[in-house]
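Translate structure to sequence.
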């Protein structure tokens, strides 16, 4: 008799646990669907620009401002913000160790639901991104599980001290990380459709003198905005 009672209790308990798990799964699915729900019709779509230059306010920031101005011109539904990593304390990442720097302040901005696109800008050092940008990206380890940046439009911009100073390879290095985050990487669009914006600082710190490079920055900003709007259900 006791064996039958124990078996009955076991089955009742197992059934309750299964029902609880099913309910939790339904709740989780509902939450996921709610997170993916379209934003209100009057909501703005934000485009961020991240400058990975140690030289605050110089040519990388100037090029990103050009991209943001172009993005904002696409639609009145677009708003923009420039973030310079030089304003934040970012330490090298030690896997499995909590961050003890300013990254949480940046994370709040990056993962905000209204952020539809991000333009990443870096000066070129030895045909690659700056150490500051690399340290910033290395904080994204947890996003390999949460995919908090998934489906945000992304573009990359690089500034070098020569016309052919490694801009493309620096852009591609950053893009490799963005693709690993499920971001939607875009180039500067038609008519040239380059993979990113490439600019030349002619040692005068006046990026506006590089007309062809400025054109790629404008195209990149426009294209990021267009894709971000489409992802938000506002584009054509």
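Result:
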């Amino acid at each position: 008799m006791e064996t039958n009672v124990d078996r009955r209790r076991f089955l009742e308990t197992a059934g309750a646990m299964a029902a609880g798990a099913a309910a939790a799964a339904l709740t989780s699915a509902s939450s996921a669907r709610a997170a993916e729900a379209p934003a209100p019709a009057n909501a703005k779509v934000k485009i961020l620009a991240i400058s990975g230059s140690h030289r605050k306010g110089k040519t990388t920031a100037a090029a990103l401002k050009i991209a943001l101005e172009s993005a904002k011109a696409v639609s009145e539904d677009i708003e923009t913000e420039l973030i310079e990593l030089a304003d934040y304390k970012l330490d090298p990442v030690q896997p499995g160790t909590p961050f003890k720097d300013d990254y949480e302040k940046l994370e709040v901005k990056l993962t905000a639901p209204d952020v539809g696109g991000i333009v990443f800008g870096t000066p070129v050092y030895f045909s690659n991104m700056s150490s500051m940008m690399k340290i910033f990206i290395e904080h994204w380890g947890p996003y390999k599980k949460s995919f908090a940046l998934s489906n945000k439009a992304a573009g990359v911009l690089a500034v070098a001290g020569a016309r052919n100073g490694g801009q493309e390879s620096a852009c591609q290095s950053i893009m490799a990380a963005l693709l690993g985050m499920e971001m939607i990487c875009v180039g500067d669009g038609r008519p040239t459709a380059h993979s990113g914006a490439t600019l030349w600082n002619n040692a005068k710190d006046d990026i506006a003198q590089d007309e062809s490079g400025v054109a790629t920055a404008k195209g990149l900003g426009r294209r990021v905005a267009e894709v971000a709007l489409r992802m938000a259900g506002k584009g054509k």
